[in-house]
Amino acid sequence: MTVYFIGAGPGAADLITVRGARTLARCQVCLYAGSLVPRELLAECPPDARLVDTARLDLDQITAEFVAAHEAGHDVARLHSGDPSVFSAVAEQMRRLDAAGVPYDVVPGVPAFAAAAAALKRELTVPTVGQTVILTRIAQQATPMPDGEDLATLGRSGALLVLHLAARYVDRVVGELLPHYGADCPAAVVAMASRPDELVLRGTLDDIATQVKAAGVVRTAVIIVGRTLSADQFRDSHLYSPNRQRPHDPCHPPGPAA
After folding, report:
1. Alpha carbon distances (Å) from 152 to 142, 174, 184
2. What are the phi and psi torsion angles at 78 (to 5°)?
3. What is the tally of helices (H) and strands (E) in the chain?
4. What are the pLDDT digits (tens) for 148-203?
5. What does the longest C-alpha to C-alpha distance in the chain come to?
6. Cα separation of 176 and 65, whole Å?
7. Tetrapyrrole methylase domain spans which residues (predicted)?
8. SS3 at position 100
9. Which site in 154, 184, 214, 231 is 20 to 30 Å from 94, CA atoms measured?
């Protein structure tokens, strides 16, 4: 028996990976993260699968479901939104499984920031403009940030920032980033990325907070701030440069020397 932590993707049911869908289809138990996981995915479970909405369960109750399935010899699909590697709370579940001697595996998924970039039709890393993406959040009462990871510190890098779980605090985000990025720095907010009710807001640090509040966005959104969002004057990458030395391809003989 194995617990499979599966990234369900950012919202659209067809953005789950092939591996994730196949794993889901053969697990006798499915624990899913409430409304954050598209309901259509549950139809992929076996007809007699036990379906458990974990939205109202605490960590002890979730662990008890894992252990019960383990004792019954049933594989478990643990569906999380986005990708399990960031802001998913799988680390604490894995720690409990290690202590209980329950085996587990991880199936990656499409993260929210990737879906947001797709909605914006932007590459987040652009040659000579920005090659670094920082995924972060802001401190809240329940979960403080570690020392040195506050926005003021991260903002000094000038790198493109992607903030999760921060739309409700957009005024604070803007206030902390303005000194480092400037009022004209491009900013965007994508709510419900990849879903039918997806909302895309584009602007600058000067006006993005006003847009967010006018649209009533408070959750299920990412904030993106950085110069690559509007970059159009930049050098082509070396990857496809005609001057790049490429290994010989027997199917495509090299042309005449320049």
Report:
1. 20, 11, 18
2. -105, 100
3. 7, 10
4. 999 999 999 999 999 998 999 999 999 999 999 999 999 999 999 999 999 999 99
5. 69
6. 42
7. 2-208
8. helix
9. 154
Please tell me whether residue 59 adopts helix, strand or coil conformation: helix
Provide the pairing of β-strand 104-107 with 76-80: unpaired
Sheet containing strand 50-53, strands side by side: 50-53, 29-32, 76-80, 3-7, 104-107
Token couple for 162: 């992607």
Q: Is the dihedral of CA 215, 216, 221, 224 positive or negative?
A: positive
Q: Are strands 76-80 and 3-7 parallel, antiparallel or unpaired?
A: parallel
For 100-144, the pLDDT digits (tens) are 999 999 999 999 999 999 999 999 999 889 999 999 999 876 678
Those residues whose C-beta lies under 8 Å from the C-beta of residue 161, and which sit 6 or more positions away, are 134, 136, 151, 154, 155, 177, 223, 224, 225, 226
β-bridge pairing 160-164 and 133-136: parallel
CB 201 within 8 A of CB 193: no
Phi-psi region of 220 (alpha: psi -120 to 50; beta: other; left: phi over 0): left
Tokens of 144: 């403080």
Query: Of 126, 128, 110, 108, nearest to 118 (Cα)?
Result: 110
pLDDT tens-digit profile of 100-111?
A: 999 999 999 999
What's the token pair of residue 77? 């699909």
Tokens of 193: 């990325």
Extract the tokens encoding 85: 């590697």
Which residues are CB-contacts of 215 (< 8 A; sequence separation ≥ 6)? 191, 199, 201
Does residue 235 carry a pLDDT above 70?
yes
Distance CA 33, CA 51 (A): 11
Q: Which residues does residue 249 pair with via DSSP β-bridges, in sequence order?
A: 252
